[in-house]
């Protein structure tokens, strides 16, 4: 199943994809007044839908069946204005999780995944602009990542049980201010500041949808690619993660209780612009690769960044100067319940 958030009037509504169309379960099932209170709650927003478990999935399947017969609640997916499929209070992020990304940058030793967060304010729709603000950074970079969406909450989740706690997956672009993230010392070592390097407006595009685990299949066999304009910059597979999906769920649940709708981003492979920046310790590890283009610099105004994870879809964003952003879904209502971890 593929779950979206789309704009209906001034509201944000949950929708399910069926035959390349969106089905709004509330409309397909006759509207709010015909739904039982628990069903209305389950369809109120994405996190409520996830939290409701089987109830939400049954309602979605029923809505698809009925809409096929009567045509109610169906809308063009290509014409819909999409929000991020969810906006959790924080996004738990793993860095340093692909060997080829480690090889292209300053070495950070560690026996556990790198752990940082992105705040809810960073979330951006799948086709909204990425804002370039020179006061924040002059070295704006891209990172295509597979993101885990938790379905069943828990703490200290065993690796063998991790998949039972995953609702589905989405795509995230971990947009990064490299000159805020890393400072080089005179001896060639580096100092990291992941808070300011990772948290600023529009730095976490998400979407275009959440794909449930049963539809996506094995999350460790997915192609992952990034284009800047027409240049392929990242080209790898999730099979090359250092810590896999199960291990990351286990790791993060050891620190905080994961809740329905919690998001864990799993890191990016090599091919970033950072890898070609000697001022910040970039080591050019991609020079021997012929399948991707070596970045000629960081993102600049006018660039178009496309992030793809196989089986889920693509994010596509134009880079615009601060004050010129056109966030297509910004007028929509953000449900209060979409603010949880």
Written description of the protein model:
- The chain is α+β, with helices and mostly antiparallel strands and 341 residues long.
- It folds into 2 domains: 2-76, no CATH class; 90-339, Alpha-Beta Complex (Fumarylacetoacetate hydrolase, domain 2), CATH 3.90.850.10.
- Helix content is 18%, strand content 30%.
- It has 9 helices and 20 strands.
- Strands 1, 2, 3, 4, 5, 6, 7, 10, 11, 15 and 18 form an 11-stranded mixed sheet that branches.
- The chain is globular, with a radius of gyration of 20 Å.
- Residues 329-341 have low confidence and may be disordered.
Features:
about 350 residues; alpha+beta; Fumarylacetoacetate hydrolase, domain 2; eleven-stranded mixed beta sheet; five-stranded mixed beta sheet; 9 helices; about 20% helix; about 30% strand
CATH architecture of the largest domain: Alpha-Beta Complex
Distance between the termini: 23 Å
Please summarize the sheet with the most strands.
11 strands, mixed
Query: In terms of structural class, how would the helical and strand content be classed?
Result: alpha+beta
**Count of DSSP-assigned helices:** 9
Number of strands: 20
CATH class of the largest domain: Alpha Beta
Determine the strand fraction and express it as a percent band.
25-35%
At the fold tier of CATH, the topology name of the largest domain is: Fumarylacetoacetate hydrolase, domain 2
Mean pLDDT across residues: 91
Overall number of domains: 2
H/E series, N to C? EEEHHHHEEHEEEEEEEHEEHEHEEHEEE
CATH level-four homologous superfamily name of the largest domain: Fumarylacetoacetase-like, C-terminal domain
Radius of gyration based on Cα positions: 20 Å
Shape: globular
Low-pLDDT stretches? 329-341
Please bin the fraction of helical residues. Answer: 10-25%
